[in-house]
Structures are given as C-alpha cells and as structure tokens.
Amino acid sequence: MELLSHPNKPLLIHLTEVAHVAVDSIKRKQLNLLMDFDEKETDISELITDLVYFSAAFHDLGKATSFFQHYILNLDEVHDKRKSHALLSALFVYFVSEKFLKANNVESNLAQLLSIFTFSAVKRHHGKLDNLGNEVFIEPEWRELLPELVESINNEDIQNLISLLLNDYHLKIEWSEFIQFIKEQTYDNIFGDFSLDFLSDTYQDIKAETRISLFYIHQLIYSALLFADKNEVIIAGNSQPVKQSGVIDKIAEFRVRNNFNQPKAEIDQLKNEAFYSSAEHLQKVFNKNQHIYSVTLPTGLGKTITAYNLADIMRNLVDFDDSKIIINIPFTSIIDQNFEVYSKILETTDTNVLLKHHHLAEPVYKATENVADFYQSKFLIETWQSDTVVTTFVQLLETLLASDKAKLMKFVHLANSVILLDEIQTIPYEYWETIRKTFKILGEKFNIYFILISATQPLIFTPNEDIIELVPDYKKYFHFFNRTKLIIKGKISFDDFETEIVDYVNNNPTKDVLVIVNTKKVARETFEFVCGEIDTENIETYFLTTFITPYERKNIIKRIKQKSDKQKIIISTQLVEAGVDISVDTVFRQLSPIDSIIQAAGRANRYNEKPEIAEVFVYDIEEYRKSSNYVYGNDLLIKTENVLKDFQIVEEKDYILLIEKYFTEVRKQSDNTSQPILKAIKNLDFALVDFELIENRKMESVYVQLNERAKVIWDKYVEICSKKELKPWERKAEFSSIKSEFYDFVINVPIPFDSIQIDFDSEKQFNFYVSQLEYPSVYYSFEKDDVSKNIGYNFKIESLLL
C-alpha cells in the first residue's frame, strides 16, 4: 500500500515537492557563510542548500510508520502518541546530515552543530522552538517508543523512498543502520556530550560574531522548511510569481506627473536637490561589503520617496536574482498613509508587486486578475511574496529577534533584500546593541542591505564606520530651515501650564495651536480646562488620544488639515508626532526626549508656509514628571534636561546639534544596558529570543457603534461568532472580510493597576464591551455634529496612569 503524508497525498510526492520549494528558496539567494569556527575557516554557503534539502526531503519520514498510516486512514478514531512523526523524522535527518558533512570533511564540532540544527528544525516544524540544549534531550518515554516506531516501517518501502530522495547524492544511507542507531540509543550519548561538553563549554569560547551567525543559519534552515511545508499544503503549485516593478522608472514617471521637476517654492527645490544628490552619492560610496546606510533629512523634505528610490538603485547595484524592498514603519497609521504614496508611484493594486502587511491589513492577495482564497492570501501576505513590502517594525523585528515559527516562515525571503527602517529613532535604546550586532551579521552573511531613515538619526551605528550617510552634506538642509524654534520654559505647575495655553490662545486669535502631552490623563484634563476658558463658538477644538476610535481620529485629522477661518486648538498625546501631516502655528510640548520634541516641532510651519517662525514651547510639568518617567524612562528625560539646560531658545538650524549631543549620551546608556536577547542568540537559547517592541500590558477592548455602518459591522461579527458549526480557523477566515473595518471602531483600554477590569456600564459581549448606537455608553463621549465633545473613553482619572 502506498504511503501517505496527508489524505490522498502520497508521502513521496509531498516530500519531493517540499524539498523542491525549500531548495529553490535558498538557491536563489547569494550567501556569504564563511565561518570562523574553532580557529578554522569553513565556507558552508553551498552546504547549507544540502542541509535544507535533507531537512525538507525527510521532514515527514516518520509518517511511514504503521501507526501514522493507520491514523491518516482513520482520522475519526482516537489515536495514541505513536502516530507522532516529528521526532523520528528529526533523528533521521540528523543521521543523514552528520554522514554528509563528515563525507565533506567539515570540522567535527561544526558538523555536529549543523546536523543538530537540522534535527531541531524538523523536530519543531509543528511545534515551538526550545533552547538548543533542551531540544537534544529525548524523554525516556520516547526512547522506549522509538524502536517500536522504526520496527513498524516496511524496510523495503522505506529504503526505496530514501534512495529515490537521495538519487542526486553520492551518499549511501542504509535504513538498517538507522534502526541500529535508534535501538542502541546512539543519539543519546551524542546529544548528551553535545549539551554537557560542547554547548556549555567549548561553544562559549567561539567568537561572538560566529555564534550570532550560527543562530541565523539555524533560523534559515528552519524558515526554509516551514515555508516550503506550508507552501506545498496551502498553495499546492498555485503560487503567483513575484513581479519586479522597476521602481526607479516608476518614481521618475510619478515625479513628472506631479511636476516635481518644476519646483516653485524653495522647499521644493531642496527636495529635488536631496533626491538627486543622494542618488548620485550612492553610486559613489556604495560598496557591496558595506551593508548599513542612512538617510538623514529634516521633516518635509521627501524622505519617503528619496529612500525608496535609493533602495532600488542599491538593488540594481548588487544585482541579485531575488531581491525585495522591505519598508518598515513604526505605526500602522503611517503605513496606510505611505502605502497610498507607493501605490500611486507603482500604479498598481497587484499584491505580488506591492504588499501591505500589518495585523489590520486586508488579507486579500491579488495578482493581475487572480485573487487567492483566504488561506492562500494569508500565507502569501505573511511570507511577503511581493517585490515591495510595506510593513511594521514589529513584523520585521519579531522575525529577526524572536523564534515564533509563524513569523519565521518569511525569514528565508529576507536574504538579499534592501530593508528600509523609517523613523528609526522610535526603536528603544535598550535594543540598540542587539540591533547593531545582529544587523551587521545579517548584512555580512545574508547580503541584506539596511537603510535607516530619520530626521533625528540615532547613534545605533557609528557614523562613517558602521554606517554610511547617503545624503551628501545632509547638515546643510537642517541649517537652511528656520521654520520653528524651541523655547525652553523649564518647570511649571500644571495649573500654570493650562493658564499659559489659554492666555496664548486668547492673545493670538489667528494662530492654530497644538498641545502635546505625555499621557491620556494630562491630555484629558488639559482639554477640559482649555475648552472651559476659551470661546468655543469661534474656535475649533480637537482632542486626540488612542481612547478615541481610529475612525474618529482619521476624521479629526482630516478636519484639522482643512482650511478654516476659525482658530484651531488641538490637544493630543504623542500620537501626532510621527507621520501625521498637519501644520500649525504654535506647539506646546510637555518635556519628552529630544527626538520626540523635534518630531513635535515638525508639526509646526511644516512647509515653511507660515508668515513667521513657529514657536515650540517646552515645559516640564512638575506634578506629572512621574508619569512622564513611566512613558519615556527617567534616564532619557534627564539626558534631555542636560542637553537643554544651557539653552533658552534653539532655532531649527541648530536642532542637529541638539540631536547629536543627545544621542551621544543615549549611546553611552545603550552600551551599558544588558542585552538579554543578544545573549540568548549567542547561546542558541531559542525560547528566550522573544522580542517585544510594544509593552504587554493587560487591556480590554471596547467596540463603539458610532454610526449605522458600525452597527452593521458589529451585527456581522456577532453572526460569525454565533455560528457554532464553524471551526476556529473558518470563523477567523470569515471575520477577515470585516476585520479592518471592524477595528476602526475599537479602542483598547488598559486595566488600571488597582483593578481587575475597566470601568463600563454593561457586560462584555463576545470579548468586547459595546457602546450601542441606540443606547450609547456613558463611558464613551461622542457627538456626530460636535467634534469638540468627542473625548472618547471616559475613565476614572484617578485610577489610570496612562
């Protein structure tokens, strides 16, 4: 009887197809895997393809047992753990890999380690990675079961299958030898020595750079297997080829369509100069062995398009067969905004040309006229099957600095890519050393090129050593502008802070004012006080925090940007600082780190369109310093105070001096900060490689039926949740069609530290508190016709820090 891997799927065909996809994902990449291991250099760039092949070709060999074959033909029956296949498959892959590497004269310790990498990858292709020292421990129960499993396999059938899969290799693998390997528990002695002697002792003396490289070699093998296995099951030969988009030409056409080459204002002339000079400079300074670059330009000088153009030039210079442009942005709101620009540049809606990936993006993958189904779309999007990918920092860094197999599926596709990180200053300094050391290895070994983009470039990398600036004489652009000036006001009571805002608004009726504070509590109190003290009949007032639904925030920002004869006052948290394209006359900013203050200044006189220099007042509100420390960390605020202490007024042309001085101090702090993720990477402790960019605080979600459409979407959600006949993944697939719009009406509220739930006036329904259209909750303030009343979730101010 023919062996099966899945219902009606022959095992040999599944293994052959998975191996083909896995090898193809690697062979198209140019890797530089010259390893300085145990004082001997070994190039495993070619061997890695063979190890990926063995891992993929035999990843399901354990399905040849009679126990699994009975299971696959009788899925409705109850089966014991003998149907499991991963451990037996993993041991066989180790057995093959070790013999192959020995035959190729690979140094014995390195051969052992790489063989165990293949073992780990196959063992966990359906599970969660553990630390490598734990992975090689085989539980006593399995040691007893393994001989029974190998005895249940037909020797002739399995030997024929092995011979067919190794037909292209001069490698003789006898099934009978493997049976002996299992029955005598040879693996136990090998793995025990590896864990106790090599991993705990010898491995610790190997260079840190080599150990980081080895971590990513494991992830490459694992990723190639995960991707290929899922691809074969979900796509099954229906994959859409990634379509090269010719970005440079498309940008040139876009610039012509929008008359960018015929600048009228001085700022437009500067944009053009920065665009063309950086492209020319890249041609001069580019070196294939230099993998980390920067683009540093003030707000409003077109960093988005300039960096995209540079990425494609760089891609052409390296001339790899399979190279993506991966654009990473810190916030989903900015992704949607920038994605629209990229769509206009490329003039396409095809996902294999331009793809958007974040947790709320619509899961529809379309290539020309073909639209993939939900499961195919989800897989193709999550594995970044596109020429240009627009995604979040979280998606990228959880792939590079974590071991979640769902995220790691895309890792194999990062090799040979150009990766842009926009607003790089938003990465916390605690991760700088980890990012510096891993990015350098990823560039060197996997030919990944990084471009870090910011108006406030942090010192993650040392300029002119680790990183090369692509904008020639970039400081002159900062010196040219004098759109804003910081006025350092120092410490102030909250009452006086509020009073100064009101006095300024009343004394300057022609000026639009933006107030940015550090917490929702301060924003709410400030808004209520200011609205009570000004003429709201003749002044437009707007409130912005994440306690207002995304639907409302989008509409409020749209209204702020519209021209009006009335004065505008906006009270907000720092959510307006990055990527929100508004321009006011004056900013009041609660003390925050220097880069955040500069970002806030970028919301004033943005296009140099105001009649005078915009003032940016900076205050340290005494009563709320503790909560500011919670948001930013006391260390960064002290460094900011130290930088600002010698200044009363700082003009924009001098901002670059503040930025450099500030980040020099932050770099010192970073260099003295422990790096637990980097340590785990170097020790191959996969379970401890667990990056989290967003703090994991307990939240509860509120759905707000703001309008009829929101009610319809909620009713659809309830209908989906109520279908008891749906399996969880079917329910998820059905929800995906409304997910993006659904979350436009959702806010997430932190549970107060002294409570077990948030304040609300009704019980949860299907995991959400609901403010109904007909019976709005008293805990959510919204008026359709008066945006000044829209302050969102009404918390007990005393109980909530944020």
Care to describe what's here?
With 802 residues, this protein is an alpha/beta fold. It contains 31 helices and 25 strands. The strands form seven sheets. A seven-stranded parallel β-sheet has the order 7-10-6-11-12-5-13. α13 (266-285) packs parallel to α14 (303-318). The longest helix has 27 residues, at 208-234. Residues 797-802 have low confidence and may be disordered.
Could you write a compact summary of the structure shown?
About 45% of the residues lie in helices and about 15% in strands. By secondary structure, the chain is of the alpha/beta class.
Number of helices: 31
Shape: globular
Average pLDDT works out at 93
How far is it from the N-terminal to the C-terminal residue, by CA?
64 Å
Q: Any idea what the radius of gyration is?
A: 29 Å
Question: Biggest β-sheet: count, sense, barrel?
Answer: 7 strands, parallel
Low-pLDDT windows of residues: 797-802
**Oligomer status:** single chain
Total E-strand runs: 25
Helix content: 40-55%
**Helix/strand class:** alpha/beta
For the biggest β-sheet, the strand order reads: 7-10-6-11-12-5-13
Strand content is: 5-15%
List the helices and strands and how they pair.
Elements: E1 4-6, E2 9-10, H1 11-27, E3 34-37, E4 40-43, H2 47-57, H3 66-73, H4 86-103, H5 108-123, H6 132-135, H7 140-151, H8 155-165, H9 175-183, H10 186-199, H11 208-234, H12 247-257, H13 266-285, E5 292-296, H14 303-318, E6 325-329, H15 332-346, E7 354-357, E8 366-367, E9 370-371, H16 374-382, E10 388-392, H17 393-400, H18 405-408, E11 418-422, H19 432-446, E12 449-454, E13 468-469, H20 475-480, E14 484-492, H21 494-507, E15 513-516, H22 520-533, E16 539-544, H23 550-561, E17 567-572, E18 586-590, H24 594-601, E19 614-621, H25 625-632, H26 634-644, E20 649-651, H27 655-671, H28 676-682, E21 699-704, H29 708-722, H30 728-735, H31 739-742, E22 746-750, E23 769-771, E24 780-781, E25 792-793
Parallel strand pairs: 5-12, 5-13, 6-10, 6-11, 7-10, 11-12, 14-19, 15-17, 15-18, 16-17, 18-19, 21-23
Antiparallel strand pairs: 1-2, 3-4, 8-9, 14-20, 21-22, 24-25
Helix pairs in contact: 1-2, 1-11, 2-4, 2-5, 2-11, 4-5, 5-11, 11-19, 13-14, 21-22, 25-26, 26-27
